[in-house]
Design a protein that fits this description.
This protein has 219 residues and is of the alpha+beta class. It has one domain. Helix content is 58%, strand content 7%. It contains eight helices and four strands. Strands 1-2-4-3 form a four-stranded mixed beta sheet, sandwiched between helices. Strand 3 and strand 4 form a beta hairpin. Helix 3 packs across helix 6. The longest helix has 23 residues. The protein starts with a helix and ends in a 13-residue tail after the last helix. The C terminus is likely disordered. The structure holds zinc ion (ZN). Zinc ion binds next to helix 5 and helix 8.
Amino acid sequence: MTLAETIEKIKDELNNLQDRTGVPVKVILDLVAFLLLPGKATATKLGKLGLLIKAIADSVEAVVKKGSSRFTPAQSTLDLFNEFIASHPNFPYSKKYSTVTWYYNANMPRIGGTSNQNAGAITFEDRIYFGSRPKRTVSDISAMFHEFVHTMQYRKHGQVVFAAVYVGNYLWNLIKEQFDSVAAYGDIKFEKQAYDWDRRFADWLNSRSSFAPDENRNA
Ligand SMILES: [Zn+2]
């Protein structure tokens, strides 16, 4: 392959990425240039990196949001979150969910690797997107709790740190796990914490005789 052909191929790949994720090619090139540029990490450079990360997150979210609708979880579901957190003093975040906005029918991104599945849900700051509307079952309510934990991680660390650590951790794991994308995803620090707590939440729900799985289904 000649250099010109290689450049054409990279351009095609970037355009593909832009079509699939909505992230403008220019933003990706800016990020690559930034990462390759030598020099110390100054406040100005870190500020620029923050803006780039924000531009990427905003682009991906705009694609995810397309065609989605808002929904309000049943108060009884939010009460369960409350009760669980209140009864688990080692839960690492304070309970504040009044600002969370929930969406369903979102345009969910493909899960990487050989899997052809779409992700079930994705969170951007305090906005949670589901592919399909969660039902009042232990697994769906636990999935809501999982995303809810992500909103608290965002709130604690801020969007730029959250996104940078999340993506950096994923890429590092990819290399470590020999490009097994599922293992790399499961080893992201923020995912491990969210999965750990959604499992404990599911166990707690299952242990409650008062929890009626079919109550308010789709409500
Ligand atoms: Zn997650």
